[in-house]
Amino acid sequence: MVTERLVVIGNGMAGARTVEEILAAERSLTPSLASGAGRFEITVFGDEPYGNYNRILLSSVLSGDHEPGGIFLNPLTWYEENGITLHCGDRVTRIDREARLVISVSGRQVPYDRLIIATGSRAFVPSIEGLRDEDDSPKSGVFVFRNLDDCRRIAGYAGKCRRAVVIGGGLLGLEAAYGLRGYGIDVQVVHQASHLMNRQLDATAAETLRARIEQLEIGVLVNRRTVAVLGDETVTGIRFDDGETLECDMVVFACGIQPNVELAQECGLEVDAAIVVDDQLRTSDPAIYSVGECGQHRGQLYGLVAPLWEQAQVLAHHLTGLRPNAAYRGSKTASRLKVMGLEVASMGLIEPELESDEVVIFHEPKRGVYKKLIIRDDRLVGSIVLGDGLRAPLLMQLFDRSTPLPQERASLLFDLGSAPAAVTPEAMEDDSAVCHCNGVSKGDIRECVAGGGCSLQAVMRATRAGTGCGSCKSLVRVLVERFRPTATEEPANAEVAKSADIPLGVLR
């Protein structure tokens, strides 16, 4: 076997997952393969001085519910055990395509035969007044919420504040607000759009979510555009476009992301809104690939984790030759998460587009329950589900597979005495996603149980299912019980990892 030099720029969730998939594909091709003895000699560069960690749990670190060390997916020892050279805290500054070299900030020059760019994205900060002080230094009290170091900086500052404002009412902003509320300070979420999470929820669902957030004593202001941060050297408030002001001691920007494409641009790769890739995730240079939030496939950018897992697997199968013609065809947009303790699922359309689109809605605001189906040609083309964790994954399967729906639409939203086709855990296909945060399928859970993981705790530890936002834990439990041999029982003293119960959300 000819060994190729594979360099991965980016040690985030997409880059590290691609490496995991490459190792898994090589073991599938050669089960007896020893660690580090595969087709590729792998080198990974990461900006942060850590191993790979789960960004989905950052708000739990911010709130203090989770220790920073507890969110790592692949600690530093994992790279060594798998024969991977990791240069952490050493940012790549240049790609020399002619010499096939990557050059890092420390002066390291590493040659490659194949290169994967997985540089992800960074927090978007709008161009507004007052972000910097008179000396052009960042104003004290202004933060972004994107990585582990951001969490530490925000936590350190929040302890001496009374009022915090989070700019952005999308998922990232709500995560930040949830994390800050534990410091005993007044927290206000300011959102420019007409309702919260406007990319995933309609107005009614967003209002249901808003009521839950306000029960946690977190304020919400919508239709408000921030134009300035007030204060000379330290934040004292913000100003809106209508001239009104809001006092605060700190401002956290969590209002979107922008792809990190500078390396690709500087070395001459084709870049549009992000790095342009084909169905094999190949860039305009056939030796260079890109996965994750920094890539643009068929004009589409993806910020949810599930598409990143799909991209990682396709690229791994293509590179290793497990499936040389593996192709990424794009992903249907779907997310399942927990926001402020409320289970939320959103897929496809959030509003009908055609007059012929059929809409089915059930709303029980006191319980925080909202279910909406958008149906076209007897297929599910969109859905929003709040407060019904067991129903959500089943609807996601119908959406993902475009399965014909039963004519009695209510059976999709409620148990009416007989289970409709394809909407029970038993009817889910083995490749159906159970844990979107960690890319775990029903088949993965079946294999884990068959291999001896007969408790919920064991399955969660082995597969990571249920250890992200926690919204899938009830389904994981059901599947473990289905697959467990009848002669075995769940240990009476089994305790589930604390991370499974933390109400957080998915990384955008």
Name given to the CATH architecture of the largest domain: 3-Layer(bba) Sandwich
Strand arrangement across the biggest beta sheet: 5-2-1-9-21
Helix count, per DSSP? 13
Class of secondary structure makeup: alpha/beta
Overall outline: globular
Q: Indicate how many domains the architecture comprises.
A: 4
Number of strands: 29
Q: What is the fold named in CATH at topology level of the largest domain? A: FAD/NAD(P)-binding domain
Please mark out the parts with pLDDT under 50 across 5 or more consecutive residues, or reply none: 419-423, 491-508
Q: Tell me the helix content.
A: 25-40%
Question: Mind explaining what this structure looks like?
Answer:
This protein has 508 residues and is an alpha/beta fold. The chain is built from 13 helices and 29 strands. The strands form 9 sheets. The chain has a 5-stranded parallel beta sheet. Strands 11-18-12-13-14 form a 5-stranded parallel beta sheet. Strands 23-24-27-26-25 form a 5-stranded antiparallel beta sheet, sandwiched between helices. The longest helix is centred in the N-terminal third of the chain and has 17 residues, at 13-29.
Primary descriptors:
single chain; alpha/beta; FAD/NAD(P)-binding domain; Enolase-like, domain 1; five-stranded parallel β-sheet; 13 helices; 29 strands; 25% helix; disordered C terminus
